[in-house]
Amino acid sequence: MPDSATANSRSSSLLAGLGWLEHAFLPAGAAPPDNSAFAHQRHSAAVVLDEQAVPAKSCDADGVIGVTTRPVAIYTADCLPVLVADDRMHHVAAVHAGLKGALAGVLFSAIDRLLALGARTDSLHFAIGPAIGPCCYELGHEVLDEMQNNALLRQTPTWQQQQPRNSRALRPQAEAHTQGIWFDLPGLARQMLHQRGIPAAQIEILEVCTYCMAEPHASYRRNTHFRDGYAARYSWIQRCN
């Protein structure tokens, strides 16, 4: 990996503490390891094993589980990059969970597949990387209505009527365009993981908003507002032994 990419990548203290894996949430434009397995993402609930995603983008899926030492990866802009480690079987997973994919059940699919491979809910650890935060993620009220009618959710996700201020923003936050709501996408993922029995201590959220806090060109939504460009952000994880 280039030195500049290494310097600007982010990691999870939760996953790093396990000791048997490597991982990174890379900055915009940096490439994952050369032999990474990753799929053609469709905002779906589909999850595959690493051997099915080689060569890269040879199948459609939004989650890849690593059962070997090959790195598995996903690419995002504002969607959630979720890296998963099973401390029982030493399997890993990379999951692309935008709003559409999360509501379709991609996180549940990844959990179910890992459990079928021998994991337990108390052995699964989740790191949710940089994504658009509630400070910049405006949705129309009709989307909230759809979420309230989603059969997968046991409770309404977290949202605010007034835009929250982000004291750590490095550039201006998003401006209101629809007079809608400000939605907590990482919070939705955490809620769904809790719903499936994952303890709070096994979930880490890297609170970095791609719109107002991350490196330049990290946000697709920001590019639609300012035309300042964006590039894919890869996140990867790999079992070392």
UniProtKB/TrEMBL annotation:
<comment type="similarity">
    <text>Belongs to the purine nucleoside phosphorylase YfiH/LACC1 family.</text>
</comment>
<dbReference type="GO" id="GO:0017061">
    <property type="term" value="F:S-methyl-5-thioadenosine phosphorylase activity"/>
</dbReference>
<dbReference type="InterPro" id="IPR011324">
    <property type="entry name" value="Cytotoxic_necrot_fac-like_cat"/>
</dbReference>
<protein>
    <recommendedName>
        <fullName>Purine nucleoside phosphorylase</fullName>
    </recommendedName>
</protein>
<dbReference type="InterPro" id="IPR038371">
    <property type="entry name" value="Cu_polyphenol_OxRdtase_sf"/>
</dbReference>
<keyword id="KW-0479">Metal-binding</keyword>
<dbReference type="GO" id="GO:0005507">
    <property type="term" value="F:copper ion binding"/>
</dbReference>
<dbReference type="Pfam" id="PF02578">
    <property type="entry name" value="Cu-oxidase_4"/>
</dbReference>
<keyword id="KW-0808">Transferase</keyword>
<keyword id="KW-0862">Zinc</keyword>
<dbReference type="InterPro" id="IPR003730">
    <property type="entry name" value="Cu_polyphenol_OxRdtase"/>
</dbReference>
